[in-house]
Structures are given as structure tokens and as C-alpha cells.
Amino acid sequence: MQSTKLDRILFLGTSLLAAYQVTTGIDKLSPGPILAFTIAFGMLLLTSLFFLIFGLDGFSSPIPGVSSTVIPLSMGLGLVLQHLPKYGIHYLVYTVIGLILVLLTRSTRYQLPVHTITVAVVHGIAGFTICIIPSAIVILGRMQLWYIFVAIGGALIGLGGIFFSMSRFEPKKLPLNVNLHFFPALLFLMTLCYVLGFHFG
Amino acid sequence: MNRITHHIKEYAPLLKGLQTSLLVFTGLAGYMSARCPVLNLPTLAGLFFSLAASISGSTILNMWWDRDIDALMQRTCNRPLASGKIPPRQALVVGLLLSFLGVAGAFLLNPLTGLIIFSGLFFDVVIYTILLKRRSCWSILWGGISGGMPILAGRVLAVGALDLVGVLLSLGILFWIPTHILSFSIRNASDYQRAGVPTFVSAYGIHATRLTIAIASILASIAMVGAAIGIGISWGYLRLLGVLSIGLLIYSVAESVKPTERGAFGLYKFASLYMLSSMFVMFFGGV
Fold first, then answer.
1. Average of per-residue pLDDT values in chain B
2. pLDDT band at A190 (very low <50, low <70, confident <90, very high)
3. If we measure between CA atoms, which residue out of B192, B58, B68 comes closest to residue B124?
4. Total tally of structural domains belonging to chain B
5. Is residue A11 classed exposed, middle or buried when 0-12, 13-18 and 19+ CB atoms within 10 A define those classes?
6. Fewest CB within 10 angstroms: A56, A112, B39, B178, which?
7. What integer pLDDT is reported at residue A22 of this predicted model?
8. Chain B contact present for A24, CB below 8 A
9. What CATH number does residue B245 fall under?
10. What is the complex's ipTM, to 2 decimals?
11. B123: CATH
């Protein structure tokens, strides 16, 4: 599927937002969260540049699969390290194991039900973390209302993940073309939400 | 007035706008890398004009010398000199005049800067284009050295001496240039063969060429990160440069392990984005 001019503008916008976030958006945090968020936004930056170069044809490469796992996992890890440092080590272990499991399932040729369950569980927990922690922190009054945008960004990435699963796993309920049509806007909106949440929250 | 506009339109393709702009930008980034308060608008403007004139001049002189082989290649046969739209003697005069103005302007700014810009022009026109381009595929090394001169000139103008950061910045460009030239030579291998220009592809094969591109890209990113650390770039910009360098490393490793046409295209594009972004980092990260 060819990417349109609007798609390329959205990918460029996503790259610039992610670059901003890596450069200045996370400066005031401690080293652990900085490292985790740098991985998350760095991956987002490289992924959007990848699509800027190759267009939506880039979906045939394994790169989007890897980045769609690394981004939510490292984002979730960053949030846990920032707000629940007591559970940081536990979440780090989960992140490493989750990443290995998902990469293993993606590297096999055959798609078994256990693979689908693994991907769903790993992504589900990461998505849940990204949505719940910022929401709870805002409700507790520890951050400003703007921080809720981080949770919205997490919800958007989760929504994207569900839609892509519906195109990838049998029975396929959604054509891939429909997903690809909305993907650049979804990626941009998700990044914008993260930047707004971190900047003003 | 119409005649002047007509001449400008004719000469515009001779200046290779994108390549010249990028090289001028590297020179300005080299200057800015030395941080404020060296930001001095008249000096910056002087550097801009001397770089723009000397790089444009050398580009015209290259095309003047190579007009016979340009006419044989599909990619370049429509260039104004190769197609006979501009008389060679006229182009030679314009090329020499621009080169002289550029180098003279640089000498007025600072003698060492002038010497570096003159060296860049000499390496590019005499060593690379006239002496080596038709004889050896290693000529690109000299093309790379001359490409690294604008950023070195900018740095030297700002700090007043040749320093390690300047050398690293220059090395970053030197190693980046093979990525650009070799990718072109892969894509237009038959063109170069028809014109009898030796390339890495014709001398060592496509696999070795792709490996060379990958290694050069890795060395370019090492030099850029080294220069950024030497400049004392802020942590945020260093993180950004680190992320982009890892990206370049991934493209390079992927291309050397599993070389494909698509991968080579991706590496070429990403390397260009990397260089442009690095220059922005040097430009703003040190301020």
C-alpha cells in the first residue's frame, strides 16, 4: 500500500515529537525512568523514520513487530520506575521475559494459539500499566490533570494493537488495508498525547 | 533582466543545490559547535558566503572537467555542460571566479580557515576529479576528505585553531560520504561502466561495496558521537544522537548481514537523515 503525502507528514510529525521528547521531555526525571523512556521514545522515533523512508510497505518487515513490543514495554517500565520504584525490579524482570517471549513467538513460522495468548498477555499487561498508573496518579492528585494524556496515549496504542491483531491472527476480522489507512494518524496522536501528558502533567 | 534570469536558470543545475546546501550547513554547524558567545552574525554571514561560493565554484569546475563522461551517463547527460546548454569556457570562468571569491573571503575571515577551504577545493577539483576519478575507485576517499573540510573550516574559525573536535567532525563527514557516493554507484553501476569510471562495485563487487557502506556508516556515527561528547553537548541532545546512532548501526548491520536493494536504499536515506540531524544537534545542542 502506497503512503500518501499526509501519511508522510504525520510520520515526520511523529518523528519530531519523539525527538523532542528524547531531547528535553524527560530531562527532570531520575536515571532509571530516563533510560526506559529514552528506549520507548527512541524506538518511536526510529519507527516513524522507518515508515517515512519505506512508506507503509515497511509493514512487510519485522521492524514494526519488534517496535510495537518494545515501545509499550519500555513505556510501562518507565512509568513503574517513576511512580512505583518499589516494584521496579519486578517490572523489569517482566519486561525482559515478555520481550523475549514475544520475539520468540514472532520468529516462528507457524501461528499457534499459545503464541496469540502470549502476545495478548504481554501487550495487555503493558497497556494496562500505561493506562492505569497515570490515571491513578492524577486521581490521587500527585500530578496535574494533563498527565491523563499519557493514559490516553496508552489507550490509543492498545487500540492499535487490538486492531492489528484482528488483521493478523485467524480468524481475520479486519482487512490490513483498513488498519494501514489509520495507522499514521494513530501513531501521531499517540505520540502527541504522550508529549502533552509529560510536558504539562 | 530576462537575460540574467535566463542565465541563473541555466546555471542553477550546475550548483547541485541540495548537496551544496548540506555542505554549507555542515560548515555553519562546525562554527556553531563552539558555542556562544562566538555567535557573531557578520562572521557567520562571511563564512556562509565563502563556503557557498567555494563549494559552488568547485562543483562547477567538477562538471566542467567531467562534461565528456557526464554526456555518456543517463543520470547526468542532461546537465547543462554535458548537453551543451552552457559554453564550457563560460562555465570555467564562473567556476574559477566563484572559487577565488570563496577562498579569498575565507582568508579574510581567518588565514587558517582560508587554507582549509582552499585545501578542500584543491582535493575535490584537482586530486579527486582531475587526477583520480577516472583511474581509481579509491578516489572517493579524497572526495570524502574534501567533503569534511567545510565543517573543519567552520570549527577552526570559531575556536581559532585545529582541535580534536574539529578533526572528529571532519572524520564524521569523511566516513559519511562513501555511504552517499557508493550507494549512487550501486544504483547507477551500468552508467559508470559505460563512461569508464572505476567504482567499488566494478572493482570489488556489490557485496564488498555494501559492506564498505555499512562499515563507513558505523565509523561516521562513532566520530559524530565522539565529537558531540568533546563539544560538551547537553545530555538531552546526546541521548538523541545516541538513538539516531543506534538506528544507523541497525541499518548498517542489517545491510551487511543480509544485503538487499531495499536495505541499501534504507541505509542511504537514513544516513542522509542522520547527517542532517547530527548537524542540527551540533548547531543547537551546544548552545
1. 88
2. very high
3. B58
4. 2
5. buried
6. A112
7. 93
8. yes
9. 1.20.120
10. 0.89
11. 1.10.357.140
